[in-house]
Design a protein that fits this description.
Distance between the termini: 28 Å
Strand content: 15-25%
Shape: globular
Strand order of the largest sheet: 5-6-7-4-2-11-10
Helix content: 40-55%
Largest sheet: 7 strands, mixed
CATH topology of the largest domain: Beta Polymerase, domain 2
Number of helices: 7
Number of domains: 2
Oligomer: single chain
CATH class of the largest domain: Alpha Beta
Structural class: alpha+beta
Radius of gyration: 16 Å
Amino acid sequence: MIYRISRDSLLDRFVIWNSYLKKKVHLIACGGTAMTLLGIKDSTKDIDLIVPDAKEYEYLTKSLKAIGYVQTGAHRWKSEDIFVFDIFKGNFVHTTELIEPPLKEGNHILFKEMSFICLGVLNDYDLIISKLFRGTQVDIDDCLALVKYRGAAIDLKNLEGRYRETASYSISENKINRNLDLFLERIKEGIQ
């Protein structure tokens, strides 16, 4: 059985975290988590978050340990239930380093502010970039769904420039640029 996590379940979990925290923590949803919060996807299989501030990251991960979460990988945290969190520090989403800090104005969308959690969603361009860098079919389909959902609000020339600049810092630049080329071809063919 495949477990999926809905938007309501995500928000409920953040309310629980908020009740344990004593300091402000900025969380930026990325990947399928961002798509689920935005209502583009019904659910996500795991929860991807960026904690841009290093001190906030250390505080959050220490707090998660204190309430029973277990670190099972470099970025991966698990609770006793179905929730699996990938929590990235700084400007990283998996191995993709974003060219600008997620907390910089315009690089995230404020989603919900609680007493100690400030929950945002990564901007559309960096969301697409980080998913296309991975290049799985699911990631490409998610990016197409985001472009379809946002329509003309996504400037494809701006996306291409930002993507190629981000790719220029990668040792796999040619490979990940091909992902963008294939994605743009799919858009020209028409988004289904």
